[in-house]
Write the structure tokens for this entry.
Amino acid sequence: MFTNSHRTVVVVGAQWGDEGKGKLVDVLAERADWVVRYQGGANAGHTVDLGDVGFVLHQIPSGILHKGVRCAIGNGVVLDPETLFTEIDGLVADGVDVEGRLYVSERAHLVLSYHKLIDAESSHSLSLGTTGRGIGPAYEDKIARRGVRVLDLRDPERLRDLVTRNTDHANAYLASIGTSKRADAVATLEQLEKLAPRLLPLADDVGLMIHRAIKSGAAVLLEGAQGSLLDVDHGTYPFVTSSSTTSGGAATGTGIAPTTIDAVLGVVKAYTTRVGTGPLPTEMDDPMAERIRSLGNEFGATTGRPRRCGWFDAIVVRYASRINGLTDVAVTKLDVLDTLDRIAVCTGYEYAGDVHTEFPSDISMLDRVVPRYEWMEGWQQPTGDVRRLEDLPAAARAYVDRLQELIETRITYVSVGTRRDQIIGLDD
Ligand code: IMP
Ligand code: MG
């Protein structure tokens, strides 16, 4: 992805999250100088398998596993300072050197204990199937212009005012939904006082740092979390997360100009999964869903919830390609399909006598559509050791070629296993 003319690259999920962005970012970070997360928070779970050791990263960019790569958390992220340090300590315990190469935007908003309390207690969060990490409530405070930012930790008096005001607000809400649980401003402030001396040295003007890096010719990777169909504007609203997961969010969420982005890599699974509630037109029935879930180990990296499984939906991915401006696609987990005798791809939605090939804005339609499937032959051979496209079994190659045609975007990488080295296309 990085060439002389491609220096700033965005990696986005082009389905409902968990496409394998962590692995792609890890692999591409080998050639990057900077990796920057631009949205989301500790709701993300990016799994990276190094063979002898595996990591699940929630807030720290997946580039951290490469020595010498600088990592930053952009202003578009909502940062949970407590779990950030748990994550840093875990990495250090596993021998990853974090010191001096992790930066946090001073403009990033903080996820505080009352955000998590609201997310856990509210029936609205429950009905959306959120991760319970306080993401929605933290973004609500941000948009309502009462949020607490990293830079507020520098001013104890302002911090006290903000936290007190927000705690009152949170408690009024908690009372209104009939729970007896309450947020505690004093406890929150005590916790922040403890964390501030560790967090503030990491705080910087990340937008300016990345701007300078780009000007000096650095290779910069902007790492998205969740997926395009969970984008607050373009996803299956209201069954979405609260941030701009698509490539536009990479500019606003880091503070660089959209015109500096040279390429956008969309990551998709060779099938589809979703955690939480909301439409999934190609959802499989058991026992097929069960089979894919166990073959692909489809359980949430953050919450452990079983993921819902479905066939590849070309309508969804072509839509994601359009709204992200994808220049390239990485197909992951092709190997999960190795044992299937036939594989379906959705090419349209049948509804009220018509076939729809564009993803609808009104998701109520999706509950009633019947996916139109094209059935393809399975290859029934292991692909985990394949490293070149031409060495794939013919049926697997035909499957990848057909996906590429349907999504109208070049497939540049195919991942055939969880390990770093199990990828096709890296040297092209
Ligand atoms: P929230 O982001 O915790 O508010 O959850 C909103 C929706 O996004 C729920 O359906 C979650 O399951 C989903 N979601 C949030 N983060 C991820 C992720 O990293 N992968 C997949 N789904 C996610
Ligand atoms: Mg994940």
Remarks:
- The longest helix spans residues 156-176.
- Residues 17-18, 43-45, 128-131, 133, 135-136, 225-226, 230, 239, 241-242, 275-276 surround inosinic acid (ligand 1) (CB under 6 Å).
- The CA atoms of residues 59 and 354 lie 43 Å apart.
